[in-house]
Amino acid sequence: MIDIKKIRNDFPILKRKINGNQLVYFDNAATSQTPQVVIDEILNYYSNYNSNIHRGVHKLSQEATDAYEKARQILQLNFNARHSHEIIFTSGSTHSINIVAAGYSNILKKDDEIILSVMEHHSNIVPWQMLCERTGAILRVAPMDQNGGLILEEFESICCDKTQLVAISHVSNALGTINPIESILSIAHSNNAVVLIDGAQAAPHIKIDLQELDIDYYVVSGHKLMGPTGVGMLYGKEKLLNMLPPSQGGGEMIDEVTFEKTIYAKLPHKFEAGTPNIAGGIALGTAINYINEIGYDSIAKYEKSLLDYATSELLEIEGLKIYGQSKQKTAIVSFSIKSIHAYDLGVILDKLGIAVRTGHHCAQPIMDYFQIPGTIRASFSFYNTKEEIDIMVNAIKRAKLMLV
Amino acid sequence: MIDIKKIRNDFPILKRKINGNQLVYFDNAATSQTPQVVIDEILNYYSNYNSNIHRGVHKLSQEATDAYEKARQILQLNFNARHSHEIIFTSGSTHSINIVAAGYSNILKKDDEIILSVMEHHSNIVPWQMLCERTGAILRVAPMDQNGGLILEEFESICCDKTQLVAISHVSNALGTINPIESILSIAHSNNAVVLIDGAQAAPHIKIDLQELDIDYYVVSGHKLMGPTGVGMLYGKEKLLNMLPPSQGGGEMIDEVTFEKTIYAKLPHKFEAGTPNIAGGIALGTAINYINEIGYDSIAKYEKSLLDYATSELLEIEGLKIYGQSKQKTAIVSFSIKSIHAYDLGVILDKLGIAVRTGHHCAQPIMDYFQIPGTIRASFSFYNTKEEIDIMVNAIKRAKLMLV
Amino acid sequence: MKTIANIQKEIVDEFALFEDWMQRYEYMIELGKSLPIIDEKHRTDSNIIKGCQSKVWVYAELKKDKLIYTADSDAIITKGIIALLLRVFSEQHPSDILAADTAFIDEIGLKEHLSPTRANGLVSMIKQLKMYAIAYQTQIN
Amino acid sequence: MKTIANIQKEIVDEFALFEDWMQRYEYMIELGKSLPIIDEKHRTDSNIIKGCQSKVWVYAELKKDKLIYTADSDAIITKGIIALLLRVFSEQHPSDILAADTAFIDEIGLKEHLSPTRANGLVSMIKQLKMYAIAYQTQIN
Ligand SMILES: Cc1ncc(COP(=O)(O)O)c(C=O)c1O
Ligand SMILES: Cc1ncc(COP(=O)(O)O)c(C=O)c1O
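Output (structure tokens, whole complex):
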């Protein structure tokens, strides 16, 4: 059960006033808010043990290294990876996907195929396009239906022995659709393809068991996971990460350097060139602990009730259309209102203190599919309330009067 | 003039006790400490306006975007770049160098030459080795003399019309040597070579005017600049950055995406794929402002007095040898003591509360040159004092009694 | 003929009458709705200015020594601000246009809409207005 | 023959006498200095364990059913801890070695030196000690 009063108290930003109104923050799919424990850990780091890690003999460096490596273990446990060295700290989902895509530059061959879905975020499209340009591999796109659900049969029909890689979001950021990754993984694996799951939108809402699902690569962003900006995770199976070449050179990722030859370090360091986001990594661990204290089950149940409530209240508004009505959804509602431009509605809602996202949500192919320039997206987190949804619904009605 | 009492008060970590002793932090070349204003800005960000940037219509997103772009301008002004879009936010020096090195993969040809110096940090070696592997280009190494000074004539003699790139540190992290970058730039430019200056160790100590020096690429790390971890800068001349392909694909760095074709965004966004380290970028701006309030001139003068004092006091110790005795140095003293292993000394100093770095400092070629496994490095900042140097010198004497 | 400064002053005075943001925005929405529609033949891809979220079109032609602007947007609030900008800049000498600023936008409490980081295309539109002025000024001289 | 547990207890009792870290470290440095030097022919690159900063060598051979370890380091404090570890593990049965832990290092206040993030090679050395025990145990069976 969610103790909403206590939880809201954990997030200082929720006290913010916007233009005289209480902030209603419904832009969680873009960036989640940060609980005080996470802020405090950052504060604690810089006030007490800020130091470069891994090579220092002195106490501060030891403390920072231990805290950073403990955070890695927290991630390992949370996602149930087999080894902690399968957890690579990155600067975010985008970076994680790029490491993998760059790594296949010399592995993929001309006419090999990579399958994406039509509902991918640009960060899970562009790196693969660039990889195709480098290698001559071909991008195939698995389509979706009018509800925003992946058409699994179509995916199955394009997945074949040419398929080397499948890169698909666990949850669509623009629609909220939860993709059937178990089926995708089994179809792909039976074709010997390697699967990257973009978990940016899933990890804040769904408990993930990497080993049970037999996922090859999984990526998340800290700033969507109640953690700080500038940090993320790349999970990869040991075997795959050992095979993948490092994408960056530098300190930390080498064992020995001469001008003639360089010996790369073992996992995870091979992929962690340079001084990482130390405070960020540590605080991400704190954020994961915070989420687990509340519990994924309670979160899922509570957010589902918010989603259902918002959906039915919004559909009461005349001319409002929701994009993405899959049965399996996280708490994201993407919608448009007849003859109102998303931008205009966003501006009025902002004046009323309500933060929603408007536009294409970095998922232009979805907009092209629905033949719309963009939507208004309200995305909820476990600190949101039905009262806030009421405030938004009333605000939309008010804005409609002004705009139409 | 440095008001040392006030300044020390600005850094909460300096109150830290280690093993019962007051912390003496002499590991500034690895990571500098963070003043309260910078910590407060991070706190302020997460408590008041944490939000994803650049596409949001709502107030928080506007505030975060404005603050982030203001930080970019602070960097532009501090380094005197011509345009703010020549300032690319990265996750650190290593990342910055890798962006450039990756960008030349399709520009360099077999037998083109890249010149480094023998005193580079691994982060300014390995990316170029990887580039050479990809392109067949050849790495040339400019040597140094016994004092740790670059031998400019030797550099000049290997710089020729085959030289496409020169990558050299402004200041050596292991020795403190300030390299004659004006001469290097003019020799390289007269051979039509492009020059990357690794400013990781220079920016915290030396005022840099990118336009006056006519620098092509310049990189710095936030965590060495009184800023947070996980953020850095790549400066590049507009013309060069426009030519360089983006190293990562994702959100932010594109204008339009279809599965057939993607149009890259303008500078600086082309190089800033994905959600960046927003809090980090903003707080780095605060850090730069903090440094400028104290003033580079005052800092340089004060740190020089620390360097001179430390050098003469240390040289009183029998068997102590200093590596790097160039006339132009920042406040770094790298030394060893006869028949004492650096690691052992580091351990004892740590017990006495003194944080120094020991080992090869990610600059193995320097160690190979001097034929030593590593050194003890004390690196000073403007918040350090002569009293702290006395404490270290006495501690070394005590450790010597124990160890020899 | 009213000078640019006079028109700006006029607008500022008008907006002073509004009591809150609602009235200001309602007025702008009205302005947006009543802005003469840009001639279809100028609503072309080459006259488009892409903000992140709303499209803006702008076109200019010289009549005698004055510039006549027409412009449009698919977002109504953006269009309202465009209406204000055209009221200020259209039918003025290119040299006056070049000399003018847009400070009145601040004064009427709409500053945020002209922030360079705003995803509405207005900042680029103003740049484009000035570009036209530069181009036609050269033509006059 | 003393059991591993007995020896560990002995060491803990010895260290209990020390009043501060200085005495502990002085003792360890003494131990380090007096550790029998590893046979030059075993001080090879194949027996080296690279920590970041100090090198560690380790070698083992079976005498009857007991493992005799020799080890070395270029850093004296590391060597001191090695001396303690060898006192505990050397001349024991492989199976006892495999069953044993190194908790005594915690108890004598040297925990930090066995942290997996420590750049001194000791953690890898302990792993290697156990690897020898596994290998020779198979040989005995
Ligand atoms: C599904 C999905 N993938 C990838 C990303 C990119 O994440 P980041 O910007 O943190 O790198 C996002 C963020 O919006 C996303 O929603
Ligand atoms: C000269 C030099 N270059 C590059 C780097 C790498 O910086 P970072 O680890 O912040 O990426 C360092 C840091 O130690 C350095 O001293």
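Chain A has two domains: 4-30+295-403, 39-292.
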